[in-house]
Amino acid sequence: MRKIFSLVIGAVLGLAAAGAAAAAERKALPPFTLTTVDGTSVESGALAAEGTWIFVYVQARCVPCDAVLAQIDSDERAAAPRIAIVGAGMDADQMAVLAAKHPNLKSSRWLADPARAASSVLGVKAMPTVFGLRGSFVEWRLAGTVRSHKDLESILFTWLEKR
């Protein structure tokens, strides 16, 4: 059991380290504007949460994006207030519909990026892209899919537990 736990922790640390390198090692969250589901504009600087948090960038009609959201939604450890879910090319109404599909994430920040401003400045190349942030600094990114449910769970929740 200990050996398996050590292997999982090693894999998480390796993926986080690789993600940190991809995120150009601790870059400040660049400026961009998003829209809440009620239509209010939010600057990226206002998104920063104390401690660690997750920024999940998804788009409509993206099967891997739906899978990642469903996986986060299904885990009772999801620290929803420390998760921001951003929809690429989606408006506030589309984000509200998406949010309604994930009731366990209702206290997450659901934000629309209709002009893909965040995508552009963050260098998003694949969907979904998950960013691990500490305060207003991007620590790592994970682009595309993770085949194993357990691996994704380990990465996300180990990060959120760091505070």
Order of adjacent strands in the largest pleated sheet: 1-8-7-4-5-6-2-3
Biggest sheet record: 8 strands, mixed
Show unreliable segments. Answer: 1-24
Number of domain modules: 1
- Helix tally equals 5
Shape: globular
CA-atom Rg in angstroms: 15 Å
In terms of DSSP E residues, the strand content is 25-35%
Please provide the count of β strands. 8
SSE sequence, one letter per element: HEEEEHEHEHEEH
CATH topology: Glutaredoxin
Q: Return the CATH architecture.
A: 3-Layer(aba) Sandwich
| Helix content percent band | 25-40%
What's the CATH class label? Alpha Beta
Q: How confident overall, as mean pLDDT?
A: 83
CATH superfamily: Glutaredoxin
- What structural category characterises the helix and strand content? alpha+beta
Distance between the termini: 26 Å
Task: Write a structural description.
The chain is of the alpha+beta class. It has a single domain (2-162), classed as Glutaredoxin (3-Layer(aba) Sandwich), CATH 3.40.30.10. Helices cover 38% and strands 28% of the residues. The protein is built from 5 helices and 8 strands, in the order αββββαβαβαββα. An 8-stranded mixed sheet has the order 1-8-7-4-5-6-2-3. β5, α3 and β6 form a beta-alpha-beta unit. The longest helix has 21 residues, at 2-22. It starts with a helix and ends with a helix.
Layout of secondary structure:
Elements: H1 2-22, E1 27-28, E2 33-36, E3 41-43, E4 49-59, H2 63-74, E5 83-88, H3 92-100, E6 109-113, H4 117-122, E7 129-135, E8 137-143, H5 149-162
Parallel strand pairs: 4-5, 5-6
Antiparallel strand pairs: 1-8, 2-3, 2-6, 4-7, 7-8
